[in-house]
Q: What sequence folds into this?
């Protein structure tokens, strides 16, 4: 303290000196004053803000910290050990404790909130709105649990859910959790090949689906895509439970397809006892894209996830029971799992399930929901905001947003102009938060439930407690200091709520995530990042071939495999190119088997359309490349590796950098010309 006072006195003096002379030691007065003020600010800045202090405690005193956080959930049997890390990098949290996600989300609140809204479904697609109280939710979830039980679904069985944003999807997720069955929700934008891969990997006993969804007023069939996927799959389910919304006519498959409405009628009023799970037993598997063509089943535990969500609802989202939460993600993504379904419900909040786009009937729809339902916390993606930028700005001011505490955005980089635009428009804090399917909840975020620390646009602020996150040198594995770019890595154990393994493949979990940084067994996020002198972090793009289109994570390899299925294609390369609206778009470059076609522009145009349709059919519209161009060779190294970074640079009009290893420089010229 004495030292601090001395330095402060020195600074005061230095400012006085600076003011009294026009030039000191050859430096203009203003610079000296600025220097002195900066030095004082640095001193005034506590060595750690409360968020950083909480973070430090969570890393240094894991047991004590997480024992306290664990008090936020119901344990049927208390845990005997906070963390078992005897088999790194596999972490087991809250060992011996028995709990259940459905109980924490539904039953636990029946005493105090039975008649309060728990789930509000709003569909601007089919013009419907239904509010379910916690008691209604309990009834619906029990009915679905009974239906699944009647099909023989028991603890540990897998149930695949391929559904649009309808309440039955949420009931099905919670019903699985109630039974101790493992759900795997597949995003509705995926098509038959993607679905078949997931069916084969998860081997579900039952699949729950709907006849169709709707997007932008257009019906998008689900059932025929599922039928096609089941035909492709090696390990098809015994039963398919179909929610018939009356949007798309279909012929049920006899002996396999079950009608949800009839069974609901049959099981209405059923009570299915909760299956208590040991904390580490899996709750769900969610598939995500990587650099190989085979998606990874991210496996989540039960107790750790419940604790992470209960805790984050308070510390990151600054909420309390009785609040209302609107998350515009999709239940097929991790954000939907954590912050449409489990987080708000476990936190005793009302969750709004929205089926629709951010611009229909107009660009004010989301804000009208905030006003109407008195939303306290909202979570969306930067792409949605960039879309809104094209609409009437006055819509941001049209509605009463006084209940809204903050808008959280995640899933892709939040560019500064978009952050500034929405911040000015709403007059509410904008909280950029960074995470991955694998982590289940944010790695970096402002944490207003701990303290209000100013945010910086372009930065998702600080490490979240529990994540020992570092910036590392990709070649040496050494920790890097402020303002140095490196790989963002997490020193294990991963905290509660993060993935525990890859479904059915422990070796792949270790190999994929913990083996890429030299000399250290750390979890790689495969993102570049840096932190500044004030401890704010910045995410600077992927280190691998994964791209992010409008917040959807896609493996370029999967798209290439699909393009290569076209009979005319010999090989292809897909890259992500910067896009003003979607962040990135996929662009494919294909080499044709018949070089003669190369000069026939009409044929090529038709081929481009055919290839796009093929990707659509196999992987879904979400993966469809924005453009497919034809070249006679791909730019490769002499060892045969496609030079993706050089392709991206050329496509974005940048310098492709070091090309000494390229086999045929004219291949890159062709890429340039093809655009
Ligand atoms: P997903 O697993 O689909 O959620 O995608 C995770 C990836 O999205 C991360 O590895 C990042 O590349 C990117 N991402 C997510 N949130 C952010 C963010 N706030 N800022 C920058 N990139 C992000």
A:
């Amino acid at each position: 303290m004495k030292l601090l006072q001395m330095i402060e006195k020195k600074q005061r003096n230095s400012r006085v000196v600076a003011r009294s002379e026009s030039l000191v030691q050859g430096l203009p007065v203003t610079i000296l004053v600025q220097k002195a003020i900066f030095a004082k600010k640095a001193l005034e800045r506590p060595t750690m803000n409360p968020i950083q202090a909480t973070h430090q405690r969570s890393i240094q005193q894991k047991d004590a910290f997480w024992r306290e956080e664990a008090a936020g959930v119901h344990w049927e049997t208390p845990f005997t050990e906070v963390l078992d890390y005897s088999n790194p990098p596999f972490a087991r949290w809250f060992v011996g404790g028995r709990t259940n996600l459905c109980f924490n989300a539904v039953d636990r609140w029946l005493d105090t909130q039975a008649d309060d809204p728990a789930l509000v479904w709003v569909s601007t697609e089919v013009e419907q709105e239904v509010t379910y109280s916690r008691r209604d939710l309990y009834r619906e979830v029990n009915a679905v649990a009974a239906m699944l039980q009647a099909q023989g679904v028991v603890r540990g069985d897998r149930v695949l859910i391929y559904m649009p944003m309808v309440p039955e999807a949420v009931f099905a997720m919670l019903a699985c959790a109630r039974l101790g069955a493992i759900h795997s929700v597949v995003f509705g934008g995926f098509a038959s090949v993607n679905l078949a891969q997931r069916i084969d990997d998860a081997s579900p006993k039952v699949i729950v689906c709907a006849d169709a969804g709707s997007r932008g007023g257009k019906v998008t069939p689900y059932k025929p895509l599922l039928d096609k996927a089941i035909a492709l799959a090696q390990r098809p389910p015994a039963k398919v439970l179909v929610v018939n919304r009356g949007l798309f006519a279909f012929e049920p498959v006899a002996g396999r397809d079950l009608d949800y409405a009839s069974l609901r009628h049959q099981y209405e009023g059923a009570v299915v006892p909760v299956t208590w799970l040991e904390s580490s037993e899996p709750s769900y598997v969610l598939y995500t894209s990587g650099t190989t063509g085979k998606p990874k089943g991210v496996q989540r535990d039960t107790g750790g996830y419940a604790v992470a969500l209960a805790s984050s609802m308070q510390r990151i989202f600054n909420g309390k029971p009785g609040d209302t939460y609107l998350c515009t993600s999709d239940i097929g993504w991790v954000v939907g799992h954590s912050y449409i379904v489990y987080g708000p419900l476990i936190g005793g909040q009302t969750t709004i399930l929205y089926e629709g786009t951010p611009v229909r009937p107009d660009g004010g729809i989301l804000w009208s929901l905030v006003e109407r339902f008195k939303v306290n916390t909202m979570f969306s993606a930067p792409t949605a905001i960039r879309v809104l930028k094209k609409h009437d700005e006055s819509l941001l001011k049209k509605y009463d947003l006084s209940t809204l505490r903050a808008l959280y955005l995640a899933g892709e980089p939040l560019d500064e102009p978009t952050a500034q635009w929405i911040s000015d428009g709403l007059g509410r804090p904008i909280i950029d938060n960074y995470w991955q399917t694998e982590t289940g909840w944010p790695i970096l975020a402002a944490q207003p439930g701990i303290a209000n620390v100013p945010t910086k646009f372009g930065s998702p602020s600080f490490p979240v407690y529990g994540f020992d996150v570092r910036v590392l040198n990709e070649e040496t594995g050494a920790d890097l200091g402020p303002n140095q770019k490196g790989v963002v890595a997490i020193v294990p154990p991963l905290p509660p709520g993060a993935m525990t393994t890859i479904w059915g493949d422990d070796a792949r979990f270790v190999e994929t995530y913990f083996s890429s940084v030299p000399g250290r067994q750390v979890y790689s996020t495969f993102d570049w990042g840096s932190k500044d002198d004030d401890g704010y972090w910045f995410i600077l793009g992927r280190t691998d071939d994964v791209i992010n289109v409008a917040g959807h994570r896609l493996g370029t390899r999967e798209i290439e495999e699909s393009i290569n299925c076209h009979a005319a294609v010999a090989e292809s390369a897909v890259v992500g190119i910067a896009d003003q609206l979607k962040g990135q778009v996929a662009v494919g470059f294909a080499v044709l088997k018949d070089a003669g076609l190369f000069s026939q522009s009409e044929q090529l145009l038709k081929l481009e359309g055919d290839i796009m349709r093929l990707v659509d059919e196999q992987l879904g519209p979400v993966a469809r490349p924005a453009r497919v161009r034809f070249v006679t060779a791909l730019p490769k190294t002499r060892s045969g590796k496609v030079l993706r970074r050089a392709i991206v640079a050329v496509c974005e009009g940048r310098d492709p950098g070091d090309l000494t290893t390229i086999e045929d420089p004219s291949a890159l010229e062709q890429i340039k010309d093809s655009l």
